[in-house]
Amino acid sequence: MDTRQKIIKVAKSLFHNRSYADVGIKEICDKADIQKGSFYHFFPSKRDLVIAVIDEFSYDWAHGFIAEAFDPELAPMERIDYMIDAAYYWQKSAKEIQGHMPGCLFGNLALEISTQDDVLRAKLTAVFLNAKERFKDSLDEAIECNEILPLDTERTAEAMLAYLEGMILIAKASNDPQIIYRLGSALKSIRIEINA
After folding, report:
1. Rounded to an integer, what distance in angstroms lies between the CA atom of residue 130 and that of residue 61?
2. Block means of pLDDT (10 residues each) for the chain, length 196 residues?
3. What does the domain layout of the chain look like in residue ranges?
4. Which CATH fold topology does 64-189 show?
């Protein structure tokens, strides 16, 4: 792994498990076993680093976790069940390893820094829009194959994503991944009628 990737990997873990504000450049350098000069060679500031973390993790998230959950081989509404299961088991295993639930990196960063920086807010909004589109595509397909009745797929997808992020946030606040498991089934009952 090259130095830039090592810095991003360490920073992602620290930002996710603690917070952006709580993590300093010195700690990142110490954990990555690099000198500050190497850090600044790749990243002029911590802000530049968090942008790289968002970009890299959003790619991994979209092509890993999200792509797996929204696999086109699954029936459209099964994808939503898979998403809930994946979120639950990922948070549960993280808690078992670390002693606490890390929550959603993007949700954590949105809560912490999106009101302070337009560029970071735009980056995080793009991540959430991408996830919303996966929900929307699944709902459109479910309607097309008569799995569900017609509804406003755009707004329902947005509401589903908001519910998912809120559920993960509440589970994180309680340090209890079981909340995701208990409340997850309600995600599929969210329905916004056309012209509602």
Report:
1. 10
2. 91 90 93 93 94 89 82 93 92 94 92 87 93 95 96 97 96 96 94 86
3. 64-189
4. Tetracycline Repressor; domain 2 (1.10.357)
